[in-house]
């Protein structure tokens, strides 16, 4: 059982910190960058959970089954992966050769579960006809943000491997975080579909029509304000 009685220690006042094995490194070390990205990703997932719970329980005078479905499925899945990301962060805070024997590590099973969930969500979705812009109501936009942080974590893990050797990060964890980013993308699409939130598709520059900006719109607003003051 973990028991924390004090958060501050002062040990990091010199710009260094301890890894799980007790060794100290600069806080600018690549391994701490990886751990920090993992922590940030977990925090953004927490924001998704918050947005999911903020969805109105009722719609048009009655309970919304669509919202209930999204809250049940997404909250259950995200609470599970938040614990997995915490496990991952603990592992990444240590050289794989020095991981404590009692530490339980992310395995292939966790990646397989992500894939099985994606397969189920995809059964409800139409194939993509274009790229999706990272936007949407409430939890959907935050899921896009989480996806980008997951990709940044993956890049940081690869950089650590490049710097310290291919065994600096276990292959299994690289597979997991690669699947995880895809999982967030598919989850976002599924939430959009269930909540009837239309996806915003990217259009190539040549097909977007005139892009004169909002200058004319602002001019018309200013004119309307002037006319209103004369009434």
Radius of gyration: 23 Å
Question: Could you tell me how far the N terminus lies from the C terminus, measured between alpha carbons in angstroms?
Answer: 72 Å
Going by CATH, the homologous superfamily would be Cobalamin adenosyltransferase-like
Major sheet description: 2 strands, antiparallel
**Strand-and-helix sequence, N→C?**
EEHEEHHHHH
State mean pLDDT (0 to 100 scale): 85
Point out poorly predicted stretches. none
Give the structural class: mainly alpha
If you had to describe this structure to a student in words, what would you say it looks like?
The protein has 231 residues and is mainly alpha-helical. It has 6 helices and 4 strands, in the order ββαββααααα. β3 and β4 form a beta hairpin. The model has no long low-confidence stretch (mean pLDDT 85). α3 packs parallel to α5 and α4 (139-164) packs antiparallel against α5. It has one domain (23-204): Cobalamin adenosyltransferase-like (Hypothetical Protein Ta1238, Chain: A).
Could you write a compact summary of the structure shown?
The chain is mainly alpha-helical and about 230 residues long. It is built from six helices and four strands, in the order ββαββααααα.
Please supply descriptive tags for the structure shown above.
two-stranded antiparallel ribbon, globular, 231 residues, Hypothetical Protein Ta1238, Chain: A, mainly alpha, 4 strands, 58% helix
């Amino acid at each position: 059982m973990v028991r924390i009685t004090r958060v501050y220690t002062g040990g990091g006042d010199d710009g260094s910190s301890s890894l799980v094995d007790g060794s100290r490194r600069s806080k600018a070390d690549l391994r701490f960058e990886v751990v920090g990205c993992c922590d940030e990703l977990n925090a953004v997932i927490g924001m998704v959970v918050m947005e999911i719970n903020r969805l109105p329980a009722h719609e048009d005078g009655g309970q919304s089954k669509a919202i209930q479905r999204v809250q049940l499925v997404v909250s259950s899945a995200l609470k599970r992966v938040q614990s997995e990301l915490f496990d991952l962060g603990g592992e990444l805070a240590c050289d794989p050769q020095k991981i404590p024997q009692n530490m339980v590590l992310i395995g292939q099973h966790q990646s397989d579960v992500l894939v099985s969930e994606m397969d189920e969500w995809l059964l409800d979705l139409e194939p993509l006809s274009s790229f999706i812009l990272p936007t949407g109501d409430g939890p959907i936009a935050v899921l896009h943000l989480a996806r980008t942080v997951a990709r940044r974590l993956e890049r940081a893990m690869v950089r650590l491997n490049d710097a310290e050797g291919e065994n600096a990060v276990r292959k299994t964890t690289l597979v997991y975080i690669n699947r995880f980013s895809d999982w967030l993308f598919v989850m976002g699409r599924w939430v959009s579909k269930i909540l009837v939130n239309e996806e915003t598709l990217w259009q190539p520059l040549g097909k977007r029509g005139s892009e004169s900006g909002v200058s004319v719109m602002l001019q018309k607003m200013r004119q309307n304000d002037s006319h209103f003051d004369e009434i």
